[in-house]
Every structure is written in C-alpha cells, then in structure tokens.
Amino acid sequence: MPEPHAAVDEAVVDRTPADTFVAPMGVMSTAPGDGREEAEAAKRGIRRRMPKLTLKLASGLVLVVGITLFGIIAPFFTQSPTFSGNPPLEPPSAEHWLGTTKLGYDVFAQLAQGTRGSLLIGIVAGTIALVLSVLFGVLAGYLGNWSDEILSLITNIMLVIPGLPLVMVIATYVPGRSWLLVAIVLGITAWAGPAVVLRAQSRSLRAREYVAASRVAGERTHRVILVEILPNLLPLLTAQFLFAIIFAILGEAGLSYLGLGPTGSITWGTMLNDAQTGQAIGTGAWWWFVPPGLMIALLGAGLSLINFSIDEIINPKLRIAPEYTRRVRKAAREGRGIAAEGSVA
C-alpha cells in the first residue's frame, strides 16, 4: 500500500502535462500541434510593441512621409537649383511657384534639393548615433565588469564635451566641408546621452530570467544581445533614432546659418544662410526664407508626433493617461468624483 505523501506527489505530477515546460512568458507546449499557438503568441508580442494608429501618429506619418517623398521625387521635375538665368527676386508666380532669389535661383528647385540634402544628413547622423549608442550602451550594460567600466568612461567623457561648439570648431578648421562630413560629426557628438539610457535598460534586461536561461544554455553573447535584448529595446531605439534625426537637421541648419555648414551642397540651412546674407527680410522677399523654415518646423513636428506615440509604449503611464482623462471628463459631466486609485467613484 503506497504511503499518503507518495499519492499526493503522484496527483501533482498527473496534473502537469509531460509535454510542457515553463517559459519566461508562461507555460508553453512542445507538442507538434501547438506550433500555431506559439506563432500567434509571437505575433501578439510584436503587436504589443507597435504603437497604435492614433490621430497623433497618423498626422506625424503624413508629415514625415510627405516631406520625404517631396525630397525624393520633386528634384526630378524642377530646373537646376543653381540656374541663375531667372529674374532676380521675383515673387511667387505660375512660372516660379516660390519665386526666385537675389541671384535668380528658383526657390522651389532649391527647396526640393535642400529637402533631399537635409534628410540625408539627418538619416546618416541618426544612424551613426544609433550604432554608437548601441555599441557603448547595450554592450556596457550586458557585459558588465571591466568592459562596463571602460565603455562607461568613454561615454562619460563624450557627455561632458559640448556637441555643437565642438562641431563649430571642427567646421572652422576644415575648409571643404561636404554634407557627409557634417553628418558624421553630428552623429559622433549625439550618441552619449542615448547610450546612458540604453546601458540602464540593458542592465535591467540582463537580470531577466529568459536572458539568464539563454546564458546558462550556452548561447553566444552576440546572439543573446541580438535575439533576447535588442527586440525588447526596439521602441526605445526607434525613439532615439528619430530624436537623433531631429538633432542633426537642427544642428546642420544652425551651422549653415552661421556659415559653417556644408560647402557645395544645398540644404535647408544653406537656404536660410543665403536668405540672411542676401537681406531677404530687408527687401521683403518672404518667399526666400519662409519655405525652408516651414519645412524644418513641419518635419520636426512630424517626427515629434511619431516619437510621442512611441513614448506611450515605453512609458505605461503615458499609455493609460488618455483613457484616464476620458474617464475623468465623463465623470465630471455626470457629476461624479474620481477615486484616488484612478477609478470612477
């Protein structure tokens, strides 16, 4: 006759299927017929990491995609931006949609070419900043020990170096400045802040059970980072990439306005510099400086709206704030109060 505790143990074992194992996100089955359920669970996880299509996100996408398409397509349908055979300082007309400059350049043609140049600088600088922040932030947070100390030391040194003044000094001593050089310098000076954030997030993810399980299973370091850590940092990486693009475009516009931007290239910043040196404000040629300034503002607004939508995924408080606000307004209309825990009283 079996002992009582043995019977209890057998009952516990019988309630746990033999073909299951405990995973970080719950109990998953290894039965052949459950592959579809695992795929559906993976898709749901990806959907949770994607921002919801709200009015804010849709407005940002329309602005960014529209400006990008304008910069790609419009230069093929305009005259040369350096053609000076047009009448100088001509206001907008059917022949010249945005008028001409003091030297007879077509403003619409320059705006189309400048959009392409500014977008290239922003994308290249943002990519460089993102790669460096991942290398110095994620690696430092995951590896730890002496590697963390060395990488964090380099990051802290870059943090205390002022970015824009450094770019101004480099631009002053480099006579021939291409747009690529300006983008590289802007990208190198913009990665330290995001690297600090990524380091903190990577240290947190490194302590998770599924990451520890991968390390115990003998997975290589690069595979753990690429498969287990980076997918969880995707919303944060996207937000930092968009911020780096905004920073690079605004930085290039500021340098060009001071006469330290790329030489031989047309960007929104060089258009503003030409308008300033050509006394566009004094002569009343508003069509010369308003279009590039407006394009910078619209692109910055579009990227910011997308960034705000991504922040709602990273920060749970921002994700539940709209719903809570609607509940507060509904309760106020109905004459009810709101409890301290955030529930309608």
Biggest sheet features: 2 strands, antiparallel
How would you classify the helix and strand content by structural class?
Answer: mainly alpha
Integer-rounded radius of gyration: 28 Å
> Helical residue percent?
55-70%
Spatial arrangement of strands, main beta sheet: 1-2
End-to-end CA span: 60 Å
Q: Return the average pLDDT rounded to an integer.
A: 80
Textual characterization of the structure:
By secondary structure, the protein is mainly α. 69% of the residues lie in helices and 2% in strands. The protein has helices at 4-14, 35-49, 55-73, 107-143, 145-160, 163-173, 179-188, 192-206, 209-216, 221-229, 234-257, 268-277, 280-283, 286-314, 316-334, and strands at residues 20-23, 26-29. The radius of gyration is 28 Å and the shape is globular. It starts with a helix and ends in an 11-residue tail after the last helix. Residues 1-35 and 340-345 have low confidence and may be disordered.
